[in-house]
Every structure is written in C-alpha cells, then in structure tokens.
Amino acid sequence: MLINIKQILFESIKEALEVNPNAIGFFDKDFKLIYCNDVMASLFGKTKEEAIGTAQKALLKEAYELSKGVKIDTDNFEAWFEELNCTQQCILDSQFETDTNEGHFFKVTRITLSNGITLVTGTDITELKQTQRSLESAIADIETIANTDQLTGIFNRRYFADLSEKELARSKRYKEVFSLLVLDLDNFKSVNDNYGHHVGDEVLINVAKTCNAQLRTSDALCRIGGEEFAILLPHTKANSALEIAERVRSSVKASRISYGQNNQTLTVSVSIGVTEFSEKDSAISDLLLRADKALYQAKRSGRDKCILHSYPD
Which of 167, 202, 227, 276 is catalytic? Predict the structure, then answer.
C-alpha cells in the first residue's frame, strides 16, 4: 500500500511539473539538465526530449547561435558563459529577469539544493512587462504634454523652471558655466491688432521654429510668456551666447511669415537680453533679472537688438 501511495505521489508531482505554466528544470552538479518541462525546454529553443541530458553550456550556446529561446546579448559567448558559471558557483540562490527571441519575458529563480542539484524556475511575466511598458509610455506622454507649449510645440514655462534650476545646481557643483537668453517679440501687440490673433499665433509658431533652427541639440528653447521666450545654453560663456543671440535675432528678422489666402507675408523682429551664470547666483531668478534688464535696454535703444549683461550689479 505504501508503495502505491509513493507511486501515486510521484506520478502526481510529475504531472504537476509537466502541466505547470512556469518553466521548471533540474541541473545536476555538473550543470547537465536532468529534467525539464516543455516550457523550460522552449527557453533553449528545444523540445523537452531534445533538451534533457544536455549540458547547460551546450544548451545556451546553441540558443545563442540560432537566436532561439533565451536572448543572450553578447559579442563573446565564451566570456559571457564564464561569468555566468562563476556566478553559479559562488552564489547559490539568485533571481533575475530575462527575455526570449520569441518576445517573452521570464522572471527566473535559481536555487541550489542541499544535494547539489540546482532547481531553475521561470515565471512568464510577458503580460506584466507589456503593461509596465504601456504605463511607462503613457507617463512619458503625460510628462511631454505637461512640459510642452501647446501652440508652438516647444518647452513651456514649467519645463524651463525645472530645467534651469537643475542647470544652476549642476553649474554650481561642478564650477561650470552656462548662459541664458531672454527674447521678446517687438511690437507684437500691433501684429494681433492689425492682423488678428490667428496671424499672431502663426508668428509665434514661426519664431519658435526659426529660433530652434539656430540652436544646438543641447540648448533648450522655452516659451515663458505670451511673446517671451527663454533659451538655456549649457557650457556657454557670455561672448559665445551673444553670438548665438545675434544669429537668432538675424534669422527671425530675415524670416518671411505667410498669412491669409493670398499668401501675404510679414516680418517681425526680436530683442534679446543675454547673461552668463555667476557663482553669486543663488537662484535662476537672479539670471532672469539680469537678462530682463538687458532685454529692456535693447527695447529702449531701438529694438531688434541683443544686449549682454554678464554679471550682477
């Protein structure tokens, strides 16, 4: 009777392992696969019958060479496996995530038993990973929307506040320099009054596009007010910032903005205040204040100009 119970129990456990949705495999002391179910065999791109009795290294090497089963990202399999083998010898228990060439994700648990046999199980977390990625993508989209000016498509004041404070902290910590441009469209009210707000919107869109075309990928153009923009220039000293400001100003001046059904055009100009970070600056408002002073000086002296205000009063 006892023998029958053991046999029934053995058969029940074996069936449970076979039908289990998780990958299950046992390796002996020499890391030869002595048992696995179909799910585990699929991680090596094989059937259960093909996989059982094969050394772990051979299973992984064939999966690597044929790009089947577990994905192994390396240009040197031997070195990769040597590191894996060393980890298995030194660390008895571990958990990690892996993906397969077929697009599945598994959370793998490896446990070395007291008799030297290693149990490896893998839980399919593909659906969880897809949900996680969808969530991350949605969060990124929300963050983009929150940081983007809806009219012009450039960064908004919220993003400027966050980025500028980070740039200030970085420059203070590493004793580096950056510059700030503040630009304002000249006589923009007259554009809205004479042509309508829809044309004014087109002007803002065109100015943003024109400015961006003159900037480096590391620079950040932000709309911080109705017709006011700010440009952060990392790793840029005052003289170089003034050159960039002049390039932006002249490009805006040269741009022809189309409006109306007859493709009429108009031109606009901008005034720009320029300043450079100083170690005495405690907040980005210090730089904004100087840049605004330089901007208003440009306005008072005839507009369509760039004025540099490098240091605090």
Answer: 227
